[in-house]
Write a structure and sequence with these properties.
The chain is mainly alpha-helical and about 170 residues long. It is about 55% helix and about 10% strand. The chain has seven helices and four strands; from the N terminus they run αααββαααββα. It has a two-stranded antiparallel ribbon with strand order 1-2. Strands 3-4 form a two-stranded antiparallel sheet. The protein is elongated. The N and C termini lie far apart (about 75 Å).
Length: about 170
């Protein structure tokens, strides 16, 4: 049962064409090319399978964050009783540098962090928001907070929540 056939045009190198003429009889070339395409398509993953894999990965990440939340509730992710390790929410070296800077200077603006890391401030902003979102999801409260007003001589800056990191 073959569905409706469509005509396509393909440009191939001369040497490939000569090889096709030598190996495949004239009446069988369309079938040969059609079968070659079908064989290649079977080896190529379908977009819906990729989408399904992405959904599975998201579900696994969600379950992992729930496990981390339970571990934090059990204080297994803490480094002292009542204190949460802010580095728990870092994904890579850049995130660790951001947290170290915030801990050392007790807060920073996005441009200050970008200058310190020698990178784009939008990248820093996205990293801060991601850490904020992940910590809020896992702990119920964000470990990194943005405060638009003035605090400790800084305006529109990011701060580590000291309630979560100190007893």
């Amino acid at each position: 049962m073959v569905s409706e056939l469509r005509v396509i045009s393909v440009k191939i190198p001369e040497d490939v064409y000569q090889e096709l003429v030598l190996r495949v009889p004239e009446g069988d070339r369309s079938d040969f090319i059609r079968e070659a395409i079908m064989e290649k398509l079977q080896k190529t993953p379908r977009p819906d399978k990729l989408f399904a894999l992405e959904k599975r990965m998201d579900a696994i990440e969600q379950q992992l964050s729930e496990i981390k939340k339970y571990l934090a509730d059990l204080e297994l992710l803490t480094y002292e009783h009542g204190r949460v390790n802010p580095h728990t929410f870092c994904l890579d070296e850049m995130d660790h540098k951001i947290v170290d800077y915030l801990l050392h200077y007790r807060g920073a603006t996005t441009p200050e962090l970008a200058e310190y890391l020698k990178t784009n401030r939008w990248l820093v902003l996205n990293r801060l928001r991601k850490m904020q979102r992940n910590s809020k999801r896992q702990l119920g409260k964000a470990i990194i907070e943005y405060y638009a007003g003035e605090k400790s001589g800084k305006k529109k800056a990011w701060w580590i929540d000291e309630e979560l990191t100190q007893e």
